[in-house]
């Protein structure tokens, strides 16, 4: 009888342990599903375009009120803080990088240069542009091209054409190693990179 009770209790404890393990496994699976079900592509687009809108609104306002030369100076002082403030708002690291940076701190890495080349090829062939997602255990990186328009060319076009002489002189003074000129409309000037940390 004692043997039977001991066996029954042991069996009961074993079954409870199995159920607990099964529950833990389900909980773990649930969190994995929750992390994997996050639409990083959608979030990346939202964050990149919201940051672009903030920068664009401020630049357009400065150009309208004070001219292109003042916009170059504004960018020199405010572009990084504005981008960083959007990173804080969204709790994700948002950055612009380029193969032809104005500020050397925006130089693309070798992998990012490959992505820029890929986006240039896509746009040159009039194909649909899709974000690139890079996932690993700790984080997710989102990449999407920054393309030029008429407003961009006032600071990134060809000197003495779209880019006036005064603004060009200011760019050379503020950015002695500037490479970000000579663009035409609808060209890839760089990429947005949004880094999400998995939690």
Number of strands: 4
Biggest pleated-sheet summary: 4 strands, antiparallel
Residues in helix, %:
55-70%
Task: Give the number of helices.
Answer: 6
| N/C terminus separation | 52 Å
Beta percentage is 5-15%
Low-confidence stretches: 1-35
Please list the strands of the largest sheet in the order they lie side by side.
1-4-3-2
Which whole number gives the mean pLDDT? 86
State the domain count.
2
Supply Rg.
26 Å
Question: Could you say which structural class the secondary elements and strand pairing correspond to?
Answer: alpha+beta
Order of helices and strands: HHHEHEEHHE
Oligomer: single chain
Shape: globular
Structural write-up:
This protein is α+β, with helices and mostly antiparallel strands and 199 residues long. It folds into two domains: 1-37; 39-197, no CATH class. It has six helices and four strands. The chain has a four-stranded antiparallel beta sheet with strand order 1-4-3-2, sandwiched between helices. A hairpin with a 3-residue loop joins β2 (132-135) and β3. α2 (40-66) runs antiparallel to α3 and α3 (68-90) crosses α6 (165-174). The protein is globular and about 50 Å long.
Summarize the helices and strands and which ones pair or pack:
Layout: H1 2-36, H2 40-66, H3 68-90, E1 93-97, H4 110-124, E2 132-135, E3 139-147, H5 150-156, H6 165-174, E4 188-197
Antiparallel strand pairs: 1-4, 2-3, 3-4
Short description:
With 199 residues, the protein is α+β, with helices and mostly antiparallel strands.
Which descriptors would you attach to this protein?
59% helix; disordered N terminus; 14% strand; 199 residues; 6 helices; alpha+beta
